[in-house]
Amino acid sequence: MALFDKIRGEFIDIVEWLDDSRDTLVWRFPRHENEIKMGAQLVVRESQVAVFVNEGQIADAFAPGTYTLETRNLPVLSTLKGWKYGFQSPFKAEVYFVGTRQFADFKWGTQNPVMVRDPEFGPVRLRAFGAYAARVTDAPALLRELAGTDTQFRTEEVEGYLRQLVVGRLAHALGTAGVPLLDLAANQHEMGQRLARALTADLAGVGIAIPTFTIENISLPPEVEQALDKRSQMGIVGDLGDYARFQAANALENAGGAGEGMGLGMGIAAGQHMAAALTPQPQPTHAQPAQPQPTQPQPTQPQPTQPQHPQRQPQEGPPPLPQPGRWFLGVNGEQRGPFAEPDLPAAGLTPDALVWRPGMPQWAPARDVPELITLLGGTPPPLPPRLTTA
């Protein structure tokens, strides 16, 4: 059987490659001991390049066309060794056919998210996927750098190398694009073209070009997408009161059966809570609990009856508990304080201003509070006779 194959190989005088696959980059022409007859026909079809290798060195590459392998019309063959006629060919050479068409079935995707800094949202993790096409532009370089002596070099053998290069380039492109996150979709085509040019430059040394590069989708983490959806809903609703009613309507629509009332209540509560959280609220004054004061002996003297005046309470309910030794002012219906006693004149203390401190049963005009007489420019009352010195 081996002898028959050897004899049959001697009479084959057409060297060609009919590619019946869709993923073969390089195919080595099978000949017994690499023997090629003098005068054989070399047929190189469109989207192919034939590369002759003699003693491990590339002799020449043939573009598409039909060639008669004779030394007188192919000077390159003069560098190949001659052999005796008969069943031995005049020269020996390895012939590699390299496919130069576009291989457009390459897929890529980011296994790990790419961290980028967005001017509006800050640090964001992005994922992306798409496809690209590759083609051989320098057949000798591909043989030297990647294919070697492989009898059938397929795209799957180079796909992993290309994918790593693509993902590395994509991370740099996304990080330096300077495009806001919400505008990435509008710039995907332009980014794909820039990546195709950059990858072609990177792969020039191995004889491969990337004619097309497609970014099919750029996605965000699920929690970020949910936050953007909420933001979009609020932008559509506009007014917060309308948003509260919108939430209540959603709860009413989605609730059913025994849970209808509960769903309605939860929807209303959620809407009111959201509206209250997003509406600026006046900051209440928090006073510290009153601390017990040491009891000081007070002279016994008749206390003047304080006239009752209609008071204007700044807020409903009992007044808040202030810090010990602190005074509160009521000026034009507005509660101010707490203040230390020396700070009252600067805070707007007048004889008609209402004042209150811990221990007082209610608000009173400043002119009726003995402790504040000196601050109002008056003089204290005389001491009772029983407390005067002899």
TrEMBL record:
PANTHER family: FLOTILLIN BAND_7_5 DOMAIN PROTEIN (PTHR37826), ZINC-RIBBON DOMAIN-CONTAINING PROTEIN (PTHR37826:SF2). Pfam families: Band_7_1, GYF_2. Residues 327-372 form the GYF domain. It comes from Nonomuraea insulae. Residues 279-290 have a biased composition (Low complexity). Residues 279-348 are annotated as: Disordered. Residues 291-307 have a biased composition (Pro residues). This is SPFH domain-containing protein. Residues 26-236 form the SPFH domain. InterPro entries: Band_7/SPFH_dom_sf, GYF_2, SPFH_YdjI.
